[in-house]
C-alpha cells in the first residue's frame, strides 16, 4: 500500500469549494477600481496614459532597478502594462495605483497581486520616486490600501516580501502593521544575485 503525504492546500481547480469564498467572484470588478485617499493629501488612483513618461523614468532610478527586476523597456511598453493593470482589475487578479499628490503629481506606485478571492488573500508591492522619499509616502499609501482591502473590499490577509537587505522597505512594512512572519531563504534574484526575503503580513483585526 502506498502512503501519500500531502502538504499545502492541494485543491483541484475543477472541483467546487467546500467553503464559501471570502470574496464572491465579481464583487470587486462590479465597480471601477477605487480611488483611495491617504493622509497628507495623497490620492491613490488608477494609472492614466499620460503617466507613462514618469513611470518609465522611475525605472531609470538605481534603487528601483535594483529591487524591481521586471522593468519596462519603453514608454510604449509602460502603456501596455497599464492596459494589463486594467485587465487585471476586470479579471480580479490584481490592481495597481499611482500614488499621487491630490490626483496630480505622481510620487510612487502601490499594487496588489496574487489575488485569491476564495481565501481573501493578496500580496502588496510599492516603490517611491527619489524626490518623494523620506516623507512617509510609501507608509501612507500602504496604510490606505490596507484599510480598504481589509475593510470594504473584504480581504482577510495581505502579505508582502522584500530583501532582508532592503531596510527601508522593512521599516514601511512594520510601520503599517505588517508583522514579520519569517525569512524565505534565497527566495529572489536581484541585480546582485540571490537574496533572502523577509515575509510580512497584516490580517483583518490586527491593530
Structural class: alpha+beta
Q: Indicate the low-confidence ranges by residue numbers.
A: 1-7
CATH fold naming: Aminopeptidase
Overall geometric form: globular
Instruction: Please give the CATH class.
Output: Alpha Beta
At the fourth CATH level, what is the homologous superfamily?
Gcn5-related N-acetyltransferase (GNAT)
Query: Termini distance?
Result: 49 Å
Order of helices and strands: EEHHHEEEHEHEE
What does this 3D model show about the protein?
Helix 1 (52-58) packs across helix 3. This protein is an alpha+beta fold. The chain has helices at 52-58, 62-67, 75-91, 137-150, 167-175, and strands spanning 36-38, 42-46, 95-101, 105-116, 121-128, 157-163, 179-190, 193-203. The protein has a single domain, classed as Aminopeptidase. Strand 1 (36-38) and strand 2 form a beta hairpin. The longest helix is centred in the middle third of the chain and has 17 residues, at 75-91. It has an eight-stranded mixed beta sheet, with helices on both faces.
